[in-house]
Structure formats: structure tokens, C-alpha cells
Design brief:
By secondary structure, the protein is of the alpha/beta class. The chain has one domain: Alpha-Beta Barrel (TIM Barrel), CATH 3.20.20.80. Strands 8-7-6-5-1-16-15-11-9 form a nine-stranded parallel sheet. Strands 3-2-4 form a three-stranded antiparallel sheet. The protein is globular. About 50% of the residues are buried. It binds 6-O-phosphono-beta-D-glucopyranose. 6-O-phosphono-beta-D-glucopyranose (BG6) binds next to loops.
Length: about 500
Amino acid sequence: MTFPKNFLWGGATAANQIEGAYDVDGKGLSVTDILTAGSLDSPRLLTYKLNGKFQTTPSAPGQGLPEGAEGVIDPNSYYPNHVAIDFYHHYKEDIKLFAEMGFKIFRLSIAWTRIFPRGDEEKPNQAGLDFYRRVFEECKKYDIEPLVTISHYEDPLYLSEKYHDWGDRKMIDMYVKYAKTLFEEYKGLVKYWLTFNEINTSLLWLNGFGNNVDADKPYQHAYQKLHYQFVASARAVKLAHQIDPNYVVGNMICGVVDYPLTPDPADILATRYHMEQDIFYCGDAQCKGKYPTFAKRLWKEHNVHLDITEQDKKDMLEGTVDMYTFSYYMSNVVTTHKIENKVGGNFSAGARNPYLKYSQWGWATDPDGLQYYLGIMYDRYELPIMVVENGLGAVDKISDDGKIHDDYRIDYLRMHVEAINHAIEDGVDVRAYTTWGCIDEVSAGTGQMSKRYGFIYVDRDDGGNGSLKRMPKDSFYWYKRVITSNGEDLE
Ligand code: BG6
């Protein structure tokens, strides 16, 4: 295995899934703060008041509140993100462990509500700015480059209520003000930024999981929300470059590969349509700065009428991203035929692929899909690429010797590192690999702690019990060897 000399090995997290301290030092409530814990069989619930009545709706990170709803914390419900793994108070210890593994890069996100508690304030919250400064300085101490997601599934609750989950273009200004504050504040400390985590999930949710926020007009809402986010992202990219020409800003796509179930041409076409809607629509808007030809077909098909101005189009064209980044966990099978054997994972709602193994949560392990995806995206956009999420969510058990022997995770990661290497050999310019949940964190999809991804175990369970003590797993030492050998030693 040969990886480029400066290849950035590391790990990835999100503020709401690790920080905890949800109401500390002036932080406001995010939408994720009113999201209960779920499980494999029961969805997470948003808790809110609508027309004076307490209600709940199945939801997932990235979806906002129903129109007119007011988020509330229900004293009888459990909200796993409120404490999470308390990175807020453990960040020094955690970054030290990342450094011990040899991390070159650490992906984390900023909680918008630590900086602007409601989202519409004139001035940022100093305590929030100071917290991330301390975190970035800690990273610098170990020569770890922070990779910062500006918005990772946690809009301020106040804005989501007022503007109905990006249902109003005023959200663009709120986001741009927030991004500008970060670019000015952390100049010299941060180089790599991502504008929105998995921006395409609002479209992915439409394929079988519904959109509970706007059940009556889900497509109109999803596409309009995305348009405002594209403009917000583009304006942020432009600003970033003005504030510091060294800033490198990426998009971030939930990268699910679609395969046809059969050679029936109808399946081939359906697969293409899936990839267009799910993956290329957002990629094209952010990397090419304009909507693809097929966008018109999608809007027509779903009776979508967008509020787009000439200035929006100009902004999108002038604010294209510098790199393409994506998460990759699984592939998905598309068919127009009736299927008996269905899968039920978050983003793999299609037919079961008989050639692949599935995790306990229904996610297909498919390293070849990663190589395939990398090749397609590099051909299409010709931009440097970072794989900013990848990993296996699994239940870990402490063995009699007091250790966690997570060879299943090592196997999963090894195969994906090999796939990235094959793509690099094919000529794809991959710059970084940040595995998801380098330290155990709250699952975004289910709110469970037991769906673990980390190299570092955190003693906390699905009910919020545990000492929060950190402990390296076998994969910790494996990844350390991978990094030290720059990907040559995968055993
Ligand atoms: C991605 C998200 O979809 O997948 C993360 O960006 C998330 O926030 C990760 O945690 C894994 O998903 P889950 O549902 O297993 O936590």
C-alpha cells in the first residue's frame, strides 16, 4: 500500500454527538436537544408543543420541526445528546488519545448554538468562541489539523421554529453571519472547513423514510430548503476565501452508492435516477455552482417550484467548493421489480444485496463501493477528495481480560483503507481519511450509545449510565500502526 506522503489520517465527530453540556456557558437549544433516544426498532422522537398540546414526531437528525411547533424538553423523556460523552469537559484527554494514535487531522463540528444561542443575535457568545479556541489550540499542540463542519445536524431551535427548518431565505443571512464569525475568529488555527454535513439527506429521506416535518409537501420543502442551503454554502465559501485565501472549504455528501438489482434496463434507469437525485443533485450544485440538467425533470416530477433569484445563481457560481468530501458506509440496491427481501438501515431502504454482509443495523459492508464512488466523483468534479466518515457501528463487549477485542471493526476499516488505496492507484486525488466516531459517541440515527464506532470505548450506556471513562480498544493500536506506517501495515 502506498499512500501520498502527506496523507491526512484521522477521525471524525460531531458536536451534538460528543460534547454534552447542552445548556452550559450560554449555549442555546439546538433541534437535536429535543430529540429523544430511539433504538433499532423504535425511532427517535422530536418533542414539542403544537396548538398548545404536547406532541411527538418520529424524526432524525437533519430534519426540523413541523410548522408552528415549539420545541420542549419533556421531563419524562431521555435525551442522549444532553450529556453525550461529555467531550466538553474531556476534550484534553480525548485529543491526547487521538495524538497517541498519530492523528494528523481531527474532524469536529461547531455547535451553532454555542456561538449564537438563538441564531439571530448581533454578537456571538464569547464563552462559546473560547471553548472552540481551546479545542483548536489543543489540536495544534499535537500538530493535529482540525477539519471543522460548520453545521452538523443541529440548527438552533429558535431559528428552526421561527423559519420553519430553512423554510425561509432569512436563514441564509443567519448562517452566513455565523460562518463569517468562525472564519474571522479562527484564522490561523483552522484551515479546513465543511459547510453542511450530509447536505443531501433531506433528499435521501424522501426515498422511503418520509419527511415528517412537511408530510403534505415533502418534496417542495426538501428542495427549497436545499436551495437556501446551497446559497448559504456558496456565500460562506466566497467569504472564507476573502477572509483567508488559505482556507480550503468542502461540501459534504452522504455517499450511498446505488446498484441495479437486475440487468433489466428499467432497473438501470431507475438506479441512474436515484444517483441523480440522491448524490449528484447536491454535488453538482456545490461543485459546479449550478443545477444539473436533470434538476428540471426532478422539479417537474415532484411539482416543485423554487424561489431562486438571479443573485442566488451568481452566488452559487462564485462560491463553488475547493474539495469534495463525503461519508461512506454502505451501498444500496435499486429495482423496479417487486422485492421480498428488503433491508431496513437508515439509508439502505432497497433490496438486499446477496453478495454483501449486513451489520446489525442493516448497513451493507461494501468496500468496492467506496472505490467505485471515489472514481466516479473524481471524474465528475476533478476536485481533491476527503473521505470524512466511514466505520462500523457495532456492539462492543468488554472481555474477561478487561479489553475490547474489536477485530470486526479492524476488518471493516482495513478493507476500506485498501479500497481507498486502490482508488489512489487509479489516479484519484484522495487527501484524507477520517473514520467516523473515532471515539464512541451517540448514534445520530438511533440515539444509542451501544452502536459504537470508536477506537476508544466510552463507559456510558443507552440509558445514560456509566462513568464516562475512556479505554482504547484493539482497533486503537491497529490504527496507530496504520498511521505510523502511512497505510503500509494493515495487519
Ligand atoms: C452520518 C452522520 O450519517 O453517519 C453522523 O454524519 C452519524 O452524524 C453517522 O453519526 C453514523 O450514523 P449513526 O446513525 O450510526 O450514528
